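pasting for ref
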Amino acid sequence: MKFENDPSPLSEWIPEIGDALLKSKSFYVALISTEKKLIYSNDAFNSLVKDDPCNSFLNPSFDDIMAMDASSGLVFNGYLTFGDYQSENYSIVAQVFRKKNKLLVIGGVDTEQLLTQNSAMHQLNREVIDLQRDLKHGGWIWVDSESGKGSSFRFALPLQDLTVK
């Protein structure tokens, strides 16, 4: 794409775009020293890591990233997984850059993965609706589902009125 007189039609909007990205809940950014000290992180990144950001890097680990070749500035480009091996783990599509003694981590949500999960949720909802419609006994079924936490299925069946003779 070629632009006349201006290398980018967005260049005058860089401060606004940067501000919006840093406030976004789906754009993750952190600046970490090679000595494993967190210099800066936005709220989205903070939500991925617990008390010790550098030990929250699971795959690849922070040490693995530090061992990668940094001759081009770009150290890593792919999925970064964060967590603590015990509770929920989260993956983002990320790039890690190294300049001098600092690492810049920039990442975002994998929208393709979100669309796939959303599609699966809609399919599950359709199946539950079909099941509800097919229930002939007057009972009901309900599903509550939360991404990353699982699903709860609830149902109720009417009691048959018993009379003793």
